[in-house]
Amino acid sequence: MQLEPDVIGGVLNRLRRAEGQLGGVIKMMQDGRDCEEVITQLAAVSRALDKAGFAIIASGLQQCIANGEQSQIDRAKLEKLFLSLA
Fold first, then answer.
1. For the domain bounded by 5-84, which CATH number is listed?
2. How far apart are the C-alpha atoms of 83 and 69, rounded to whole Å?
3. Per-domain residue ranges of the chain
4. Per residue in 10-53, pLDDT tens?
5. pLDDT computed for residue 39 by the predictor
6. Poorest-confidence range of 1-5, 28-32, 53-57?
7. d(Cα 19, Cα 65) in Å, to the nearest integer?
8. 69: which residues sit within 8 A by CB, 6+ positions away?
9. What share of the chain is helix, strand, coil (3-state, %, to 5)?
10. Which residues fall within 8 angstroms of residue 56, CB to CB, at 6 or more apart?
11. DSSP single-letter state for residue 31
12. SS3 9
């Protein structure tokens, strides 16, 4: 499956944002910041990564449907991909 350029751009933006947030979490830990603040930022990183993964899966599924490949979609494989992000 080849992702559309606009999907790739969106996913890359999310990943860059997550990268920045993760850097912030590391700095917070080094600075001895409050645990609640660290966890809040870590949760934001996790959500950003999840959204990037879901965007990739959704794009692939959309391409399969648009190309008339519904019968070729491996349901178990798709389920495993979704669950890997859960």
1. 1.20.58.1000
2. 22
3. 5-84
4. 899 999 999 999 999 999 999 999 999 999 999 999 999 988 98
5. 95
6. 1-5
7. 32
8. none
9. 85, 0, 15
10. 3, 7, 11
11. T
12. helix
